[in-house]
Amino acid sequence: MSKFTTQELDLASDPIILLIKYRMMEKVWDFLKELKEEIRIQLVPLQNKLPKELNISHGKISKGENYKRLPFMVLDFPAFFTRKDILAFRTMFYWGNFISSTFHLQGKYLDEYGRDLIERFRNYEGVYFCVNNSPWEYDYKSNNYVPLNELSSAEVEDHLKNIDFIKFSIKFPIEEMPKRKQDLINFLLEGLKVIQTN
Fold first, then answer.
1. Where residue 54 sits, what CATH number does that domain have?
2. What is the DSSP letter of 3?
3. Whether this model's pTM surpasses 0.90
4. 141 domain residue, yes or no
5. What is the pLDDT of residues 98-138, one digit of tens each?
């Protein structure tokens, strides 16, 4: 049997820790709900210019307790997912780590908009490019995300030839979350300048 440490016993004896965590996650839910509504308002004038399958009325907030053993909460909005084709903007709160927003393109959306998005974001400070072969990793270790402006055109092209998706992402420290909502929205709007049908 594993021995309990003093730290573990002290934590388990103090209900305030989990109560604070519960309250924090409620506030993160509210933050993402408000973000969704602010995005929706920004998208109304664009609704006839965006791909028709991209739902700009409804978003999905989901949460879990165990992304690499830590709690998280995710807003997918706007987003369209099928097994083959993905066009999604995902905002993620990851406990102890960051708040992030990510463009994820796969299938026909990668073919249609991928290279234009690369050019759009190439010189932006703080935009990361996913170099992993899995689209479902969200940490910012160097085997997953690399600043896009540090990659050569050949490295990006190699990724496009060998991997069937691309992701662009920005992140901020959790303590900056209350003042970064507009930055997350601006990142989306900048990308959507490329993802328009007319």
1. 3.30.930
2. P
3. yes
4. yes
5. 999 999 999 999 999 999 999 999 989 999 999 999 999 99
